[in-house]
């Protein structure tokens, strides 16, 4: 039911982990099924120097977080804004309809970091 | 790659002798059992023999069935266990609505029972969903009600393996003259099932868990019970289910029942051995897990857990990559994205329920399968826990 791209990212998720001295942490819970995704970013010169994450969720959620990290790493904050729910799903060659909310989760986690006010600096 | 298929509650391979028994009924003996010439009447006779075989497996008086035609009516062939459940609930409720409008089912019934009962809720019936304890057991004391016409409690639950105290429950109903149905899809062929011992009025069977083909099941019902058909049609199944019978599948179900009865005692021991090895092996290798269902009162080939901090769909996919085929009740794996009602009913917290995994074994499984699972499962769990943001907290706790 999943595309090869999804299975590839699920089987070998990129950039997994936490960032000790992260500049921001975005944590989202999935209201639909109750799972969770936590993103860590390191920002330098307005660029996402590093993006890492931990995910408690389904195949799609894991693939989405991996893809989001790949699509945003090394990008400017402005560029990273274009990583929407739709863009992530497309980059994964599509997601099953009922799994689109997992894609939303990834986009949301990052937007929480750098678009909304919820950005919080780690002391 | 090594393969370990441990999802026999979902499907079982059709046994070779079953396939062989079925084959002539596709082309050689293709007659319609409702016709009067020998090509049809012979098939009718064959169908009655299958009915007797199924009846024998569940302790219905098989000899009498062959000798006295009337007894044969105790088994109705259906397209599935789900249809048998639908026919039991709807057939009894519709036929008995003048007597009362209250139905009782447990909170952990199969969807075919649950949604049939909900259907009557919309038709102004009153439906009670009996809660279960932490092991999934129904409390017999809770069966009450003056308007109650039907109680349906499953024999065993296929998600947590718990076997319900059916004879205790049915005794209470019998005393009050309330019709009792049990969904025995998970038990028939796995443990001895006897409709007289269980003292039930109706009992559902599925071919899927018996080594018969998919698309066939049966409903046992006690003599003279009034049952409204779901499929109106001709005189097939004594007017209780219209439509030309699926003869090859029925022959398959008959053969599978015969084999199941022969092999039952031996298989039970074998499955119990495998199950115990799997359960203790998992407990030794993985921490922070919950063994769901009753520790003793459970199906012999059934093991189910909730593994903390990981999600079931991801777990199943990763096991799949190692040739291991198991099932899960995780919300993410369900189309509706809802936690399994069974895990909710036994009080598993939602986050823990996400890590649900269910192993259902049958006679074709071997100790090698168990070893393969015990080798791979801990690695897969560790990998997913490394990915999980909540695992670290759990570990510290
Ligand atoms: S995380 Fe639950 S469906 Fe994707």
What are the secondary-structure elements of chain B, in order, as H or E? EHHHEHEHEEHEHEEHEEHEHHEHH
> Number of domains in the coordinates of chain A?
1
Put simply, the count of helices of chain B is 13
CATH-defined architecture of chain A = Alpha-Beta Complex
Rg calc of chain A: 13 Å
Seen as an oligomer or otherwise, the chain set is heterodimer
Q: Report on the biggest sheet of chain A.
A: 3 strands, antiparallel
Instruction: Give me the count of strands of chain B.
Output: 12
Quote the distance from N terminus to C terminus of chain B. Answer: 38 Å
CATH topology annotation of chain A? Sufe protein. Chain: A
Top CATH class of the largest domain in chain B: Alpha Beta
Bound molecules: FE2/S2 (inorganic) cluster
Shape of chain A: globular
Structure described in brief:
Chain A is an alpha+beta fold and 123 residues long.
């Amino acid at each position: 039911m999943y595309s090869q791209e999804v299975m590839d990212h699920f089987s070998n998720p990129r950039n997994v982990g936490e960032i000790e001295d992260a500049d921001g942490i975005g944590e989202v819970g999935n209201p639909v099924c109750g799972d969770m995704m936590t993103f860590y970013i390191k920002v330098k010169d307005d660029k996402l120097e590093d993006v890492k994450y931990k995910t408690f969720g389904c195949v799609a959620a894991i693939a989405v977080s991996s893809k989001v990290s790949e699509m945003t790493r090394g990008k400017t904050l402005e560029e990273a804004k274009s990583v929407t729910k739709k863009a992530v799903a497309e980059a994964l060659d599509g997601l099953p309809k009922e799994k689109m909310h997992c894609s939303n989760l990834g986009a949301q986690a990052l937007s929480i970091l750098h678009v909304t006010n919820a950005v919080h600096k780690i002391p | 790659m090594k393969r370990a298929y441990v999802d026999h509650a979902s499907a079982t391979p059709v046994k070779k002798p079953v396939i062989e028994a079925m084959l002539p009924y596709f082309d050689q003996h293709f007659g319609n059992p409702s016709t009067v010439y020998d090509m049809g009447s012979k098939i009718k006779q064959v169908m009655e023999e299958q009915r007797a075989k199924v009846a024998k497996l569940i302790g219905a008086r098989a000899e009498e069935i062959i000798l006295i035609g009337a007894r044969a009516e105790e088994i109705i062939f259906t397209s599935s266990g789900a249809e048998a459940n639908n026919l039991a609930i709807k057939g009894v409720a519709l036929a008995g609505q003048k007597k009362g409008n209250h139905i009782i089912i447990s909170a952990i019934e199969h969807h075919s029972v649950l949604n049939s009962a909900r259907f009557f809720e919309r038709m102004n019936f009153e439906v009670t969903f009996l809660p279960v304890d932490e092991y999934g057991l129904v409390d017999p004391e809770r069966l009450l009600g003056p308007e109650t016409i039907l109680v349906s409690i499953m024999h065993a639950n296929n998600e947590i393996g718990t076997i319900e105290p059916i004879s205790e429950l049915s005794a209470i109903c019998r005393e009050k003259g309330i019709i009792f149905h049990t969904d025995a899809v998970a038990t028939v062929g796995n443990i001895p099932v006897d409709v007289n011992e269980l003292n039930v009025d109706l009992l559902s069977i599925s071919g899927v868990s018996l080594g018969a083909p998919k698309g066939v099941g049966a409903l046992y019902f006690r003599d003279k019970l009034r049952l409204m058909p779901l499929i109106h049609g001709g005189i097939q199944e004594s007017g209780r289910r219209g439509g030309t019978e699926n003869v090859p599948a029925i022959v398959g179900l008959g053969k599978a029942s015969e084999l199941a009865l022969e092999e039952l005692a031996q298989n039970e021991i074998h499955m119990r051995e495998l199950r115990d090895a799997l359960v203790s092996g998992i407990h030794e290798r993985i921490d922070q897990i919950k063994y769901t269902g009753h520790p003793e009162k459970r199906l012999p080939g059934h093991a189910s857990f909730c593994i903390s901090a990981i999600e079931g769909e991801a777990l199943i996919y990763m096991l799949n990559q190692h040739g291991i085929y198991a099932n899960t009740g995780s919300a993410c794996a369900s189309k509706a994205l809802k936690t399994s009602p069974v895990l909710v009913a036994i009080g598993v917290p939602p986050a823990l329920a996400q890590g649900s995994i269910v192993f259902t074994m049958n006679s074709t499984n071997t100790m090698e399968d168990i070893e393969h699972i015990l080798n791979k499962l801990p690695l897969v769990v560790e990998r997913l826990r490394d990915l999980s943001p909540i695992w670290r907290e759990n570990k510290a706790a």
